[in-house]
Amino acid sequence: MIDVMLVTAAYIAAQMLSDITSLKIVSFLGFSMDAGTLIYPITFTLRDLVHKVVGRRGARVVILAAAVINLFMAGLFWIVSRLPYDPAAGPQPDWDAVLSPVWRIVIASIVAEVASELTDTEVYHLWVTRITRRFQWLRVLVSNAVSVPLDSIIFVWAAFGGVFPTAVVWSIFWANVLLKGAVTVVSLPSIYLVKRDRDGAA
């Protein structure tokens, strides 16, 4: 039960942090990149941990719950950004400038997350039920190899296509794929951190 709570909380927290930080485009190792990419890649492996402890059906529920929570968070930020400042506290323009949601990015992020994470769930499930339950690190690698580029292509073009020059959008895409791929490789051993294994559960 503790494993379930910890991996679920970590997954949803990482999703929320990545959506907030995606509002800023940064230069990282020579690439243009949304800052959410610094935290978001770990969600793919965390999703695999969720799948391992609660099964496919539970993973789907957690993915959709994270999407609803992120949408609620963006809505709350939007409402707060529209509320007037308290004159006694003085102006606070930085809050609105930083946290007021850019709806195109919010929707692109949530759609990409749901599509890629649900795909990751199905690939993971097929791997452990049709191929092998051995080599747990390999199930993470295979499922992430499909979901990482899918997430990146949906997000960067939905969020930034037509807004930034094509070269910048592709730079953001490749930065996403490379960083997410690197995080996947580094995080492979974490699949062994949880003991309860519901591989193949419906």
Features:
Arp2/3 complex 21 kDa subunit ARPC3; two-stranded antiparallel ribbon; mainly alpha; 6 helices; 202 residues; 4% strand
Question: Please, could you describe this protein's structure?
Answer:
The chain has a single domain, classed as Orthogonal Bundle (Arp2/3 complex 21 kDa subunit ARPC3), CATH 1.10.1760. A hairpin with a 2-residue loop joins strand 1 and strand 2 (31-34). A two-stranded antiparallel sheet has the order 1-2. It has helices at 2-21, 42-82, 93-99, 103-131, 136-160, 166-187, and strands spanning 25-28, 31-34. With 202 residues, the protein is mainly alpha-helical.
Summarize the entry for a quick read.
By secondary structure, the chain is mainly α. 71% of the residues lie in helices and 4% in strands.
Write the layout of secondary structure elements.
Blueprint: H1 2-21, E1 25-28, E2 31-34, H2 42-82, H3 93-99, H4 103-131, H5 136-160, H6 166-187
Antiparallel strand pairs: 1-2
Helix pairs in contact: 1-2, 2-4, 4-5, 5-6
Largest sheet: 2 strands, antiparallel
Tell me what portion of residues adopts beta-strand conformation: under 5%
Helix coverage percent of residues? over 70%
Architecture (CATH level 2) name: Orthogonal Bundle
CATH topology call: Arp2/3 complex 21 kDa subunit ARPC3
Number of domains: 1
Q: Could you list the spans in which at least 5 consecutive residues all have pLDDT below 50? A: none
- Computed Rg: 18 Å
Residue-averaged pLDDT = 87
CATH class: Mainly Alpha
Shape summary: globular
Q: What order do the SSEs take from the amino end to the carboxyl end, as H and E?
A: HEEHHHHH
Strand order of the largest sheet: 1-2
Give the end-to-end Cα distance, rounded to a whole number of Å: 18 Å
Count every helix, treating DSSP H or I runs of 4 or more residues as helices.
6
